[in-house]
Design a protein that fits this description.
Layout (H helix, E strand, L loop, with lengths): L2 H12 L25 H10 L2 H5 L18 H18 L4 H10 L8 H11 L6 H16 L6 H8 L10 H24 L10 H7 L3 H16 L9 H19 L8 H17 L6 H8 L4 H11 L2 H12 L7
Helix pairs in contact: 2-5, 4-5, 4-9, 4-11, 5-8, 5-9, 6-13, 8-9, 9-11, 9-12, 10-12, 13-15, 13-16, 14-15
């Protein structure tokens, strides 16, 4: 018996009957030989951590564009916090921790530079539309490894695609990540807003604080404990009615006071113009795309999609540098 097979056997004996078991995975887009050490979801997790799109998350905006401070979240630190929340919940419920980790680490791989401002810009300017969860799946299916993709399992791809509020994951592990994403950004975006001086803890309505606490850490603790308690032994991932109400109210409070705050979002119009300008430029000058994207075109991918692939994959810094290289005049010297 291989190490992988013994681990699969352990999953069958220990994990909840409602969990996703590695040996019962619905498989990959392309069949491949099994690893003798790692079950399939662990292997997917490793592939995501080692891919280029994952490394680029460190220079992509979470909420605050180009903040002057070392402690504001980036898209990468957001991803790590989602993963940690999801693993805590999965372990308590005896779900597949490696599956939730793979989904969590991959859920934002297709996110644009400049956060949701970049996503809005590409969605407006591209006739195909642009949605980051779909682009995350395209990233792992097509864009990574020079157009060959990571060939992940169905369960990981399904969780990535359905991680947003409107999504309906087909596994409990995907549902754990879907909720973990929400509680992560509510937690850390409030923390960053207080750090930036945009909000004070006392600004949170009292009726919310009475349910889930009056600090970011206490709210996160309330959310995680409530999910575990409400979901224990059930074939679903739930919150109690009272805590779910408080979470939705807290999310609405964050939209009103942070996500749509003109101070916090003062640079977003510039970011949207920059993204739209880069998209239009490369649509006209497709020959300037890097070779790996030209290869996608030669293989039949449509131009609008490939330009979105390139511009959407940029980091904040690279997008700004590319814009400056193309449009900002340089001093002439001899």
């Amino acid at each position: 018996m291989t190490i992988r097979e013994s681990l699969e056997q352990w999953e069958m004996s220990y994990l909840s009957p409602h969990a996703s078991h590695s040996r019962d995975s619905r498989g990959r887009l392309k069949e491949e030989e099994q690893c003798d050490i790692r079950p399939v979801f662990q292997r997917d997790r490793d592939r995501i951590i080692h891919c280029k799109a994952f490394r680029r998350l460190k220079d992509k905006t979470q909420v605050f564009l180009s903040p002057e401070g070392d402690h504001y979240r980036t898209r990468l630190t957001h991803t790590l916090e989602v993963s940690q929340n999801a693993r805590t919940i999965a372990k308590a419920l005896k779900l597949n921790e490696e599956l939730v980790e793979a989904i969590a680490l991959g859920h934002d791989l297709g996110h644009t530079p400049f956060g949701h401002a970049g996503e809005r810009a590409l969605n407006q300017v591209c006739p195909l539309g642009f949605e980051h969860s779909q682009q995350s799946v395209r990233t792992v299916d097509r864009l990574e490894k020079g157009g060959h993709g990571l060939n992940l399992t169905y369960e990981v791809r399904d969780g990535i695609l359905n991680h947003q509020t409107i999504g309906k994951p087909h596994t409990l592990e995907g549902k754990v990540v879907r909720l973990s994403d929400k509680i992560a950004y509510i937690h850390h975006d409030m923390d960053d807003a207080v750090r930036a001086g945009i909000l004070k803890e006392a600004d949170v309505p009292r009726e919310i604080r009475e349910v889930i606490g009056d600090t970011p850490s206490s709210r996160l603790d309330h959310f995680i404990h409530d999910i575990v308690t409400a979901s224990m032994g059930r074939n679903d991932i739930l919150m109690s009615e009272r805590v779910e109400w408080a979470m939705k109210r807290m999310r609405a409070f964050m939209f009103e006071n942070v996500y749509l705050n003109p101070v916090a979002k003062s640079e977003e119009n510039k970011a949207e113009v920059l993204m739209e300008t880069l998209y239009r430029h490369f649509m006209k000058h497709v020959e300037e795309l890097p070779e790996e994207f030209l290869n996608l075109l030669s293989e039949g991918d449509v131009r609008e999609q490939v330009v979105c692939d390139y511009v959407g994959a940029m980091t904040d810094r690279y997008a700004i540098a590319t814009y400056e290289r193309i449009y900002i005049p340089k001093y002439w010297s001899f």
